Amino acid sequence: MKSRLAVLGVMSFLIAPTLPIPASAASFDCERTDLAADEKAICDTRVLNDADVKMATTFDILTSLLAMGTRDALRDEQSAWLKKRQACGGDVACLMAAYEERMKQLTQAFEGLSRPL
């Protein structure tokens, strides 16, 4: 389990610099004028911004590793999670809890990957 988390950390470190990152570093453009309340809170709160980048990077890595059917299920879960995040509005505590829950789910998905011995 620890070795899988270490691999995820290394992959995040290697891939993150190659991803296009807006000035604010969130996984979406914080410069948009039509930000929803949850997006504005994420852009304005460093810890949420960091959590968003970590979650988005982990999600991208997982989708690249999963088979098509499992990948589609993960994307459906992500869409459902985004609706839950949006329901938090600008409530920072609610948003942090949402990110913690999603990262736990993504970590479990990563741990569930089969790999050759």
TrEMBL record:
Please name the InterPro entries in this protein's record: Lysozyme_Inhibitor_LprI, UCP037256
Supply the alphabetized keyword list. Signal
Signal peptide annotation? 1-25
Q: Quote the cellular component terms of the Gene Ontology held in the record.
A: extracellular region
What is this protein's record name?
Lysozyme inhibitor LprI N-terminal domain-containing protein
Q: Which species expresses this protein natively? A: Aliirhizobium cellulosilyticum
